[in-house]
Amino acid sequence: MKTKRLFFIDAVRAIAILMMLQGHFIDTLLDPQYRSNNFTAYRIWSYFRGITAPTFFTISGFIFTYLLIKAKQKGELNLRIKKGFIRGFMLMGIGYFLRIPLFEWLKGNFGTYWLTVDVLQCIGLSLIMIILLYIITFKKTFLFSMVLLFLGIFIFLSEPWFRNIEINHLPLAIANYFTLANRSVFTILPWFGYLAFGGFISTIFYRFLEHNTFKKYIIIGFFVLGVFLIQFSTHFLYLLNQLTDIEIFRLSAGYNYLFKRLGDVLILFAIFYLLEDVLKHFLILKIGQKTLSIYVIHFIIIYGSITGFGLNRFIGKTLHPWEAVFGALTFWVVVCVIALNYTKTNQFFYNKILLFVNAVKKKLNID
To answer: Angle 292-128-68 (CA atoms, 0-180°, nearest 5)?
Structure first.
């Protein structure tokens, strides 16, 4: 049976990374006097910026899980698991590396800021967790699918329990994955929930993609469920609290951003899947395949990773709105040109690391 390629995945991944680029640029450099919801443009920008991280995490879980379960069908599961572990640890390593203050280290000032957890560490650990869950569920797709769905719902519902958690009894490097108290940007809870939902959605595609009516029904499903989560999930949680008297439903409804943002992601998925034929542009697909390179390059330019000399230092929060808009567009072009023309694909680096690991194992005679 010929496998259908999901072009919309690369398109969603491309738009997510572009949204991240402009979001970080404007957030880092826009003059504070314009950061007010009294400005309609800022309010709209802020809303859509809030969709970026949920989209990026969800699509990461979707892609990784889909390739994992497809590998079993192709008889390449062990290789995919090995590559998955390497990918997870590599993302975590790059995440830490980007925050190393090299010149400060050369002076003997090490500090702990480089131990803060950001998007790459969180996604890297999440990918490792998905592999472990797949192994624990005996590599049974249906059971694995249900576990991912349950975990996603449970993590989102229980967010109030760990929202402001402080952990003092664990080493800082571990605690930073669970608390924002030490300046971490993302924590494994609740953000693993989005990868779990992405993984669950991928199992639906895996099972029904070849059906002739699947695309129509999944697009309708994305739209309906997305609208429900955005408009009615808060009321539904309050209703569950009234019916069951379970306190966590009320607490979750009181600050219900996770389910609403998941609704935004589903609407985005529906739009991009609906327009998939239009989005099969070489440039869009190429950007979607270079997300890691784009992330690293943008981090270095904006935040001065390693050197400490970035736009945040040279420009600071001084730009007027139109300067920020044109600057963000220019930033898009510069980063994408560098990534598309001067860096290899993400898969190239994964394969090189895999070859290195295999060479080391062979040298050590490890089976």
So the answer is: 80
Beta-carbon contacts of 217 under 8 Å, excluding residues fewer than 6 positions away, are: none
Report how far residue 79's alpha carbon sits from residue 72's, in angstroms, rounded to the nearest whole number: 10
Cβ neighbors of 222 (< 8 A, separation 6 or more) are 266, 267, 269, 270, 273
**Residue holding tokens 């040298």?**
363
Radius of gyration, alpha carbons of the chain = 21
pLDDT digits (tens, 9 = 90+) for 221-264: 999 999 999 999 999 999 999 999 999 999 999 999 999 999 99
**pLDDT tops 80 at residue 105:** yes
Cα atoms in the 13 Å half-sphere on the side-chain side of 360? 6
pTM of the model: 0.93
Please state the φ and ψ torsions of residue 319, each to the nearest 5 degrees: -80, 140
Cβ 302 vs Cβ 344: under 8 Å: no
Pull the structure tokens for residue 213: 């009516």
pLDDT, tens only, 172-213: 999 999 999 899 999 999 999 999 999 999 999 999 999 999
Tell me which H or E stretch contains 347.
helix 346-363
Under a CB-based contact definition with an 8 Å cutoff, are residues 237 and 291 in contact? no
- Show Cβ contacts of residue 238 under 8 Å, excluding neighbours closer than 6 positions: 249, 250, 253
The CA distance from 56 to 41, in Å, is 23
The DSSP output letter for 30 is: B
User: Which residues, 6+ apart, have CB-to-CB distance to 212 below 8 Å?
Assistant: none
The pLDDT tens digits for 264-318 are 999 999 999 999 988 877 788 889 889 999 999 999 999 998 778 899 999 999 9
